[in-house]
Amino acid sequence: MGGPTLSTNDRSDNPSSLRRSVAPSLPANPFPLIVGPTAGGKTSLSVRTALAFAEATGAPSEIVSADAFLVYRGMDIGTAKPTADERCRVPHHLIDIRDPSEAYTVKQWLADAESAIADIRARGATPVVVGGTHLYAKALLEGLFEGPDPDPALRAELESLGLPQLRAELERVDPAAAQRIHANDQRRTIRALEVYRSTGTPISELQRQWDAGAVRPDCRLVILDWPTESINSRINARVRAMIDEGLVEETRQLWETGALGEQAREALGYKQLIESFEGRRSLDDAIEQIKIQTRRFAKNQRTWLRRLATTPGAITIRHDAHDPAPKRIVEACVAG
After folding, report:
1. What would the pLDDT profile of 315-333 be if each residue is shown by its tens digit?
2. % of residues, the chain, pLDDT over 90
3. What is the reported pLDDT for 26?
4. If one looks up domain 31-143+219-335 in CATH, what number appears?
5. Which of 2, 33, 144, 234 has the fewest CB atoms within 10 Å, i.e. the most exposed one?
6. Fold of the domain built from segment(s) 152-207
7. Which of 226, 219, 225 is nearest to 332 (CA)?
8. Comma-separated ranges of CATH 1.10.20.140 domains in the chain
9. What residue spans in the chain does CATH classification 3.40.50.300 cover?
10. Total-model pTM
């Protein structure tokens, strides 16, 4: 494939590896990667930016999604997919490419994103990458951290333990990871312990090696910045709008037909409503929990954004509606 490709660094005697995104023949101008908190207006900004690129360069622009749940068909309302009008005005990629019963990893996304970016470049267009899954953004910018392959027997052993026991072990062997991973996140807790037991090295230490990696030169990071109070208000309003648009009915249909796999069931909004359908909480409580958990997710995103903000050449876009953001992004990329 032309344009950016994937290559794997030598492992030597290190139990981890980095899968780097490299561009053997760099295009004239970098493309933007837009990140920001959930409900922060990323989709609208990406569409306006793509149209601004087309106007400024005379060549088309296409959007590549960097969102872990937009890939799933049928999960439309709760993932805030771009509207039909937005997708008509600008072509979008990596949306509705998997059934929600399937798992989809960051490794798969990175390969798909590199392919889409290369294809867009080959057509003479500018890719605009946008999304709220910041692990995807970091992988695109700096390469993909890959620990040891999963060990089914070890994972089964860990899964047989209760979450309190898992957390206690993680706090003992890797306090940095225990602090970073949410106390209720059993999947990531198990993975961290799996890496430690397989390699003898804490996953937090392996990831520090990833953090030291170089940033790809053909991409310009754009960060949407919102005050906490403002974004929390937008989150609450978005959840209410999703309920009015039919999120409960959408989730119920997916749940009743058994369409949701283990990964898709964890998506914010869907997870809380399924708990209601299964009798574990009332519908009103589920809706309130969606707001609470989404605000917590936004808080975690802010942590990611602070780390990403140190990326050389990163552009910060304030929440001020009068900020001519698309023009600034285009100018930064064309000048870059």
Report:
1. 999 876 556 789 999 999 9
2. 68
3. 45
4. 3.40.50.300
5. 2
6. Histone, subunit A (1.10.20)
7. 219
8. 152-207
9. 31-143+219-335
10. 0.80
